[in-house]
Structure to design on (189 residues):
């Protein structure tokens, strides 16, 4: 049983690593090997197919999140998967191709913690050197549903601002968004 558990944990870790550090080697159009080439002096090197001249742009992934308050407490979820398994985040997840960012934030909040929310306003957009994600965080109003640990969450809790477990938060974007939110509310140092 321990062996199986180790394989599952290894698979989670490998999947998380590959998602953040994926290296593409073959052209998705013709299957030839890709080569690195500088196309414009002012831009980074790109993956280019020498056979069909397809340029493989490694674009960022967009993540949509919400900060939701219920009874003056902030919703945080404990992650059940890698990366950052066991650490706390605000509700959120990847935006699907063709999906509006606000709609993704609402959908992810419902999927991850059972809350129906209405977007109030944009809090901020967070991006970091060497990370493929661009994180868009909205302030949202709870309109229905009970807080539960659902999809990709092992726990869901409400935290007063002074109870936020800063040393147990996953991702710099979570920390930065919560600091910005508390700053707006006049609760930041």
């Amino acid at each position: 049983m321990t062996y199986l558990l180790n394989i599952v944990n290894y698979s989670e870790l490998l999947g998380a690593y590959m998602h953040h550090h994926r290296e593409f080697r073959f052209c998705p159009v013709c299957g030839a090997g890709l080569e690195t080439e500088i196309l414009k002096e002012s831009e980074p090197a790109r993956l280019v197919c020498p056979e069909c001249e397809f340029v493989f742009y490694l674009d960022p992934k967009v993540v949509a999140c919400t900060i939701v308050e219920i009874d003056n407490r902030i919703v945080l979820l404990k992650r059940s998967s890698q990366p950052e398994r066991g650490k706390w985040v605000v509700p959120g997840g990847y935006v699907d191709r063709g999906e509006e960012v606000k709609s993704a934030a609402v959908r992810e909040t419902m999927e991850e913690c059972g809350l129906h929310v209405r977007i109030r306003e944009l809090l901020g957009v967070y991006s970091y050197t060497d990370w493929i994600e661009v994180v868009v965080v909205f302030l949202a109003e709870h309109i229905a549903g009970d807080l539960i640990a659902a999809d990709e969450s092992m726990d869901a809790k409400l935290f007063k601002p002074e109870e936020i477990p800063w040393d147990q938060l996953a991702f710099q974007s979570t920390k930065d968004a919560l600091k910005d939110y508390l700053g707006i509310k006049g609760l930041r140092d």
About this structure: The longest helix spans residues 2-21.
